[in-house]
Inverse folding.
């Protein structure tokens, strides 16, 4: 008996998340169809112009906005930033340096430092 290998597909929202782009900014044909693993791999390897433009200019989804600002997604929510931002808007925020951004960056740095400390402690315990 031979096994039949089916093509794995994903919803456009999942593919957009894996590509790091905001779904609502993608072309209609991308949003309305399904994406196979092969198509996703091809988009990652050879991004079309629309994907390149979205990655450079945005609008960006929250995880990308948070990473570009150096804060957590929760930090964005605490600051009331719930909408996707363009690269231009992100750069403007960096230039303004609002108090919430500095506070959230400090918090994020402390969280990362604590994670490193715990990882090191666990590694020493196992050794």
């Amino acid at each position: 008996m031979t096994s039949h290998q089916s093509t794995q597909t994903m919803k456009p929202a999942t593919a957009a998340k894996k590509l790091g782009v905001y779904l609502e900014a993608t072309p209609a044909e991308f949003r309305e169809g399904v994406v196979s693993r092969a198509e996703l791999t091809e988009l990652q390897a050879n991004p079309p112009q629309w994907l390149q433009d979205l990655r450079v200019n945005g609008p960006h989804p929250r995880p990308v906005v948070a990473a570009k600002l150096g804060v957590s997604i929760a930090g964005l929510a605490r600051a009331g930033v719930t909408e996707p931002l363009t690269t231009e808007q992100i750069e403007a925020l960096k230039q303004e340096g609002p108090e919430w951004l500095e506070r959230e960056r400090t918090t994020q740095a402390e969280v990362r430092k604590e994670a490193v400390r715990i990882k090191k402690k666990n590694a020493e315990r196992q050794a």
In short: The longest strand covers residues 9-10. The chain has a mean pLDDT of 88.
